[in-house]
Design goal:
By secondary structure, the chain is of the alpha/beta class. Helices cover 35% and strands 23% of the residues. It is built from ten helices and twelve strands. It has a six-stranded mixed β-sheet with strand order 8-9-10-5-11-12, with helices on both faces. The protein has a four-stranded antiparallel β-sheet with strand order 4-3-6-7, with helices on one face. It is globular.
């Protein structure tokens, strides 16, 4: 795999709360803070005492063995699930009164483990659906096709192509989403999420199904997205080359609880993390 330039030029430093964020974000309100977040399903505790902070422009990772609770955390952060306890702050504001739609408008976008595209729509139209937050014309304007409708349609077309160009997909704009190769569908889902103008982008296993070359390109593009849009990215991923190559802060879950937080170097050297992934050696 080609080597991707390190982004860890800004060391993690502690806030007064003890949370670690990149030094460049120290004077800014964290884009995400969770305090004692947890959820129970019946008598089963799926996530418990999840305390995590993501800096304003941080690329952070959430990792752990299968079934550790990672996607459940994403579902809590995006209001798919209502937490049993705890608080989620977005840019310092409590999100407890928000639903999935209002949270997206406030600046949180996500992709999914299983790709969720509108297969029968074109690539461009999938991206345009993500631009709904920017639409300001009324239903009547749309129905009557008044000048403001055509003006905003032209702007949406230009913006969709601009976003697609991040992944060199502008030439695919007229193709049906279902006709794209798997890796391109993954990239399209990320572009559609970016179209909602997020402050925090949640990527659920973005490299799943990609070959090493595609994964290396994805790593470069995630950093490009962070730098271009000055947003934070939180990703779940099993590809440790990707995680260790681009994440500044990493949180490790096991059985719904955090077992480690720190830099990639800290995580790689943590015996509790190694045991969680590889199991305890016989005789230990």
């Amino acid at each position: 795999m080609p080597k991707v330039p390190s982004i860890n030029e800004s060391p993690l430093v502690p806030k007064p709360s003890g949370a670690l964020i990149p030094e460049r974000d120290l004077l800014s309100t964290p884009v995400l803070e969770t305090h004692h977040l947890g959820i129970d399903f019946g008598g089963l505790t799926a996530v418990d005492d999840f305390n995590f902070t993501v800096g304003k422009t941080e690329i952070a990772g959430l990792i752990g063995p299968n079934g550790a609770g990672k996607t459940t955390v994403f579902n809590l952060l995006t209001k798919v699930y209502k937490p049993t306890r705890g608080t989620i702050l977005l840019n310092g504001e409590d999100t407890s009164g928000m639903n999935t739609v209002s949270l997206n408008k406030a600046g949180v976008a996500r992709t999914f483990q299983n790709i969720r595209l509108f297969d029968n729509l074109t690539v461009e139209d999938n991206v345009k659906l993500g631009l709904h937050n920017a639409n300001s014309y009324s239903m009547a304007t749309s129905i009557l096709r008044l000048p403001n409708f055509w003006k905003q349609e032209r702007l949406a077309h230009e913006k969709a192509l601009e976003l697609l160009s991040i992944f060199d997909m502008q030439d695919m704009a007229g193709l049906k989403a279902s006709s794209l190769p798997y890796g391109a569908q993954r990239r399209l889902e990320i572009v559609r999420a970016l179209a909602t103008n997020p402050r925090l982008l949640l990527l659920d296993e973005p490299a799943a199904g990609m070959n090493p070359s595609e994964t290396a390109e994805l790593m470069e593009n995630i950093m490009k997205i962070r730098d271009t849009f000055q947003i934070a990215v939180l990703l779940i991923e099993h590809d440790m080359n990707l995680v260790m190559g681009i994440c500044e802060g990493i949180c490790v879950l096991n059985f719904g609880r955090i077992i480690a937080k720190g830099t990639p170097e800290d995580i790689q050297a943590n015996p509790t993390v190694v045991e969680a992934y590889l199991g305890r050696k016989k005789g230990d």
